[in-house]
Amino acid sequence: MKTYKIALIPGDGIGRDMTAAAWSVLQKAAGNRGFMLDGTEFPWSCAFYKETGTMMPADGIATLRGFDAILLGAVGWPAEVPDAVSLHGLLLPIRKNFVQYANIRPHRLLPGVQGPLKASAFDILCIRENTEGEYSGAGGRIHQGTSDEVAVETSIFTRKGVERILRFAFEQARTRRGKLASVTKSNAQKHSMVFWDEITRQLAQDYPDVEVTSYHIDAMAARMVMAPETLDVVVASNLFGDILTDLGAAIQGGLGFAASANINPERSAPSMFEPVHGSAPDIAHLGIANPIATVWSGAMMLEHLGEQDAANAVMAAIEATTASGIGTVPGKDRTEAITTALLAAI
C-alpha cells in the first residue's frame, strides 16, 4: 500500500484541535482509497519556545526535509511570545528554506454558507509570492529607545522571484477561466512595483490565451467587495497577497473557511498546508473552532500528493456538511460535531 510521510505541526491554541480533526478526516479518505498517511507529530510552538528558547530545534529544517508534506495547525500566542518571534522562528524559515514560493488560497462560498456580500457566485484563486518581497526581513533599527531612533524595512524583489510566481499564476489561470489579475501599487512604489508590472507585461506575451489585467492594491480591494464574480486568478506580492486573502476569507464567510497551501512547484522539498486563521487563543479552550479551513487545506495536500480522488472526496464531504447547515455559522456548532459530520460524509 502506498504510504505518504506527513509531518504534523499542530502548533498553538486551536491549531491542536484543528489538526486532530483534519487528520481524522484525511486518514479516513486515504483508507477508503487504498493508500496510507503516516503522520509524525512535532511539538514546535510558542510553548516549545518558552521551554527551549527556539520555535523549533536547530535541525528542524533537516528533519522536515524527509517528509512528503507538512500539515500545520496554527502558530502564535502573542500574550506569551511576540508574533515577530513566532513567525520568524517557524513559519517563515520553512517557507524560505523549502522554496515554497507559491502561496495558494481559494476563496468561494461553500453551500449553505452566507457571506456578507450580495454577490455569491464568485470563485477566486489568490496566488501570493511567499518567500521574498516585503517579508524578506532585510533592514534594522538603530538608536533604539532614543528620539533619534530609525527603523528600516527593505523589500526585496528579484527578477527570478517575480517571474516564477507570475508564471505559476499564468499557468493556474490556464487551467481555470483564463483570466489573471496582477496586483501592485506602481503609481506610488516606482521601483519594485513598476518592476513587477514590467515583468507581467513581458510574460503575458508567452500566454496569449490568458486575459491579463493590472490593478492597484486599493482598486483590487474594492473590486473584491463590489464585483468579486469578475475575478479568476489574482497574483500579488507577499504583503499585498497576505492582506487580500484575509479580505477573501471575509467575503467567503470567515476565516473558518479559508484554506491555504505553501507550494514548492519544483517539488525539490516538501510543501506545507495550513489554514489562514491564526491560533485564536481566546477560544482555544471552548471547543467551538471550525475545522473546515484545516480540512480544506488537507484536501489541497492530497491533491498535491497526486491523490485527486481522495482530495475530491474530502471537498465533497465539506460541501455536504455545510449544505446540511453544519459548520456554516461561526461558533454555532462544536468542533466535534463538525468533525463527526465530515467523517460521516466521507
UniProtKB/TrEMBL annotation:
Residues 5-342 form the Isopropylmalate dehydrogenase-like domain. InterPro entries: ICDH/IPMDH (IPR050501), IsoCit/isopropylmalate_DH_CS (IPR019818), IsoPropMal-DH-like_dom (IPR024084), TTC_DH (IPR011829). The keyword Manganese applies. GO terms for molecular function: D-malate dehydrogenase (decarboxylating) (NAD+) activity; magnesium ion binding; NAD binding; tartrate decarboxylase activity; tartrate dehydrogenase activity. Its main location: cytoplasm. Keywords: Lyase, Manganese, Metal-binding, NAD, Oxidoreductase. It holds the Pfam family Iso_dh. It is found in: Cytoplasm. One of its GO terms (cellular component) is cytoplasm. Its EC number is 1.1.1.83, 1.1.1.93, 4.1.1.73. It catalyses: (2R,3R)-tartrate + NAD(+) = 2-hydroxy-3-oxosuccinate + NADH + H(+); tartrate + NAD(+) = 2-hydroxy-3-oxosuccinate + NADH + H(+); (R)-malate + NAD(+) = pyruvate + CO2 + NADH; (2R,3S)-tartrate + NAD(+) = 2-hydroxy-3-oxosuccinate + NADH + H(+). PROSITE patterns: IDH_IMDH (PS00470). Transmembrane segments: none annotated. Its cofactor is K(+); Mn(2+); Mg(2+). Pathway: Carbohydrate acid metabolism; tartrate degradation; 2-hydroxy-3-oxosuccinate from L-tartrate: step 1/1; Carbohydrate acid metabolism; tartrate degradation; 2-hydroxy-3-oxosuccinate from meso-tartrate: step 1/1; Carbohydrate acid metabolism; tartrate degradation; D-glycerate from L-tartrate: step 1/1. The keyword Oxidoreductase applies. NCBIfam families: TTC (TIGR02089). PANTHER family: D-MALATE DEHYDROGENASE [DECARBOXYLATING]. Has multiple catalytic activities. Apart from catalyzing the oxidation of (+)-tartrate to oxaloglycolate, also converts meso-tartrate to D-glycerate and catalyzes the oxidative decarboxylation of D-malate to pyruvate. Belongs to the isocitrate and isopropylmalate dehydrogenases family. This is D-malate dehydrogenase [decarboxylating]. It comes from Rhizobium tropici. The lineage of its organism: Bacteria, Pseudomonadati, Pseudomonadota, Alphaproteobacteria, Hyphomicrobiales.
